[in-house]
Design a protein that fits this description.
Radius of gyration: 15 Å
Strand content: 15-25%
Largest sheet: 3 strands, parallel
Strand order of the largest sheet: 3-4-5
Structural class: alpha/beta
Distance between the termini: 38 Å
Oligomer: single chain
Length: 166
């Protein structure tokens, strides 16, 4: 499966469409040295292939399907992501913001105790709402960093504009 999925970005990369605002958000996170991770139901070759094709930043921490025994909507993947970010249990709920485009991912993020922004890029607003997203936005242009402190234990202020649901 991993090998076949590694071919997808190479074969279809020219058709790839970046989620509006993704590059800006990732650049802002890196600029302030904020810890971030990608937690995906895809395989490592698939996600790294798309990041390469789109010329987007690679996270220091990546959790993929092969890293967990139970996939989304189980919270295992997000819990592993928090472990990899080096956050103590008491810091997790207050400090992790999940950005998800799928109902299963929203359910996993909520079950892990996180606040979740639902992206209305692949599923309906109703599906995202029913899954429990705290906010729903059309794309990542609605999510910006307004201030931040450098480092793992710094504080980042995020502004969510034009939310479709809250």
């Amino acid at each position: 499966v991993s090998y076949i999925e590694s071919l997808i970005p190479r074969e279809y990369g020219a058709d790839a469409v970046e989620v509006p605002g993704a590059r800006s958000l990732l650049t802002s996170l890196e600029h302030i040295n904020a810890p971030w991770a990608i937690v995906t139901s895809g395989t490592r070759p698939l996600v790294t292939g798309w990041l390469d094709v789109m010329e987007l930043s690679h996270p220091q921490h990546l959790v993929v399907a092969e890293d967990v025994s139970t996939g989304k909507p189980a919270p295992d993947c997000y819990r592993l992501g928090m472990d990899r970010l080096g956050l103590a249990a008491e810091e997790r709920r207050a400090t992790i913001l999940v950005i998800e485009d799928s109902p299963a991912g929203i359910l996993a993020g909520k079950a892990a105790g996180c606040r979740v922004i639902g992206l209305a890029t692949t599923h309906s607003i109703e599906q995202l709402r029913e899954s429990g997203a705290d906010w729903i936005v059309q794309d990542l242009r609605s999510v910006t960093l307004t201030s931040g402190c450098v480092g793992v234990h710094g504080t980042i202020q995020i502004e969510i504009r034009h939310a479709l649901e809250h």
